[in-house]
Design a protein that fits this description.
single chain, about 120 residues, mainly alpha, Arc Repressor Mutant, subunit A, 2 domains, 6 helices, about 70% helix, about 5% strand
């Protein structure tokens, strides 16, 4: 249940494009709130609200370095989301592989003029 709540918080935080952009910036290295606010047409308090959401989800942490409070990305929450998504990634990759195999078989059958599959198609015409 705790992992489900963690995933809910992670995906809710990732649902907002501003928060995803903040994470993308933090993936390059830590930054202050002012540095994170620069590219956005919003106030520093609005950015701080986004940071609180990211922090509650465990996606970022804030440190203290003299007068600075640098933010840094925390990979654990993203790793949990990636593990959850990996299950579905494997399912879809398996489905795509079966589709590729079917398409290969159909192309091979079309390339062979005397194959039983092509005889069935000729009779239907």
């Amino acid at each position: 249940m705790m992992i489900a709540n963690s995933l809910d918080n992670t995906f809710a935080a990732l649902a907002d494009p501003t928060r995803r952009a903040i994470l993308a910036r933090l993936a390059l290295g830590e930054a202050t709130v002012m540095e994170l606010a620069e590219p956005f047409a919003m106030t520093q308090p609005a950015i701080s609200k986004h940071l609180k959401v990211l922090e509650r989800a465990g996606l970022i942490s804030r440190g203290r370095d003299a007068q600075r409070r640098p933010c840094r990305i925390e990979p654990k929450a993203l790793a949990q989301a990636d593990m959850w998504l990996a299950q579905y990634r494997r399912l879809w990759e398996s489905n795509f592989q079966r589709l590729d195999d079917l398409l290969d078989a159909l192309q091979l059958a079309e390339a062979m003029p005397d194959s039983p599959r092509n005889e069935d198609v000729k009779q239907e015409k």
